[in-house]
Automatic annotation (TrEMBL):
Listed InterPro entries: Puta_zinc/iron-chelating_dom
Taxonomic classification: Bacteria, Pseudomonadati, Thermodesulfobacteriota, Desulfovibrionia, Desulfovibrionales
Official protein name in the record: YkgJ family cysteine cluster protein
Highest taxon, organism lineage: Bacteria
Region (Disordered): 219-239
Amino acid sequence: MLYDEDYFFGKYSQIAAGADAVFERVKADFPNEVRCATGCSDCCYALFDLTLVEAMALNKAFRETLDEATREKVLERANSADRQTVKIKREANHARQKGVAPEEILQELGTKRVRCPLLEEDNTCLLYNNRPITCRLYGIPMVSGGQTHTCGLSAFEPGGQYPTVDMDKITDRLLALAQEFSQSIPTKFTQLGEVLMPVSMALLTEFDEEYLGIRPERLQESADGGPQEWVLGTGAEKE
């Protein structure tokens, strides 16, 4: 293995566990306001991106948890969702080029709805235990870019005094993890750690050596300062 899955996915799992703990604490303190329940799928239409390690973790769960027939069905839906997402982002980019204020663009993006390819007909999630951070926190107040957002189905009153989750800080932690990952492998892509993608693309992507930009041979400094040479696809060093 080219990288340490246990290390990077373990650190991501810690962030996810922290998000779960925050959600449960807010839910316990505001049981009447948090209305998340089995069968509610409002968050499953939200438009958001994943950072690299989060996308890879979801992809791993997708490939290892679901059977082949289910994966094929989900990939068909992912293709459709991805086309919708690309169109929405293209329209947002055109608006940006026309000089539309970023706040207006974000507000408009917040109204867009794309069905998650992991959402089943009975409104259950095929990978609920492996769902992204945003999914874990949806339903309680979140602040991003100075703007507070709440689920439209919740009972949090506008202007009320409630605890909010700083999504920018969480995103910074996820991006830092992605940067750490990209710096740990011999990639030719200097901006690999900055990659963002929707759930649909995370499911469709093959996170192999080609995608990660792995160089066939690259000298690495060993712990004692001597050179080590990576062998493509194994993560082992030549002696």
